[in-house]
Amino acid sequence: AAKHYENVAIARKDGKYAKPAALNAVAAYAIVDKATKYPKVPVLGSVEQPIAIPETKAALVKAMEMYIGMFPTEADVPAIRFTIAGIHYEYGHYPVALKRYEDIFQAHPKTEQGRASIKVMVGHYTGRKDYANSIAQTRKYMGDDRVSDGSLKTWLTDNLRLAMFQLAIAFETQKQFVEA
Fold it and tell me: How many whole angstroms separate alpha carbon 117 and alpha carbon 86?
């Protein structure tokens, strides 16, 4: 069914059934994805080498990208883009995922997904104990005028303190007192 909806959406890009067909393709692939049993993947953010995205999830991503390409201004696009980034992140495709999260923030900074994207990007570096990048990313977003959400600013401030403290400890442990 998903492939059929996809074909209708592609064949009738300008027709009145294009949007429902594209959305139904996404929904049908999402149902198949949810019903599919996948091998267990490591905890988010801890995949050492990228894992191939399973065929069913890849088809879902393709359908979502088709929908976004056809209807880029729809209200559900930020959520769909966030889901795509999450799939890449889950399977350890970090450069792709982080780029997608950054793109979400740039295009939709005031949405829930835009704010969550910041947390994923900054949290990625903090979680991997890459405190220098965590600090750099945190400062970047703290200095961005589009980040006006008080709770997000508080979260960024807390993360900055944590990362700076952890980086100082790392420098001290390595006897790099000038850097600390």
Answer: 10
Over residues 149-159, the pLDDT tens digits come to 789 999 999 99
- As a whole number of angstroms, the distance between CA 32 and CA 16 comes to 26
**Residue 144: count of CB within 10 angstroms of its CB:** 14
- Using CB atoms within 10 A of its CB, is residue 129 exposed (0-12), middle (13-18) or buried (19+)? exposed
90 SS3 class: helix
Number of other CB atoms surrounding residue 133 within 10 Å: 15
Res. 180 pLDDT band, cuts 50 70 90: very low
**pTM to 2 decimal places:** 0.88
Per-residue CA distances from 120 to 101, 117, 140, 160 (Å): 8, 5, 14, 14
Are 114 and 78 contacting, i.e. CB atoms less than 8 angstroms apart? yes
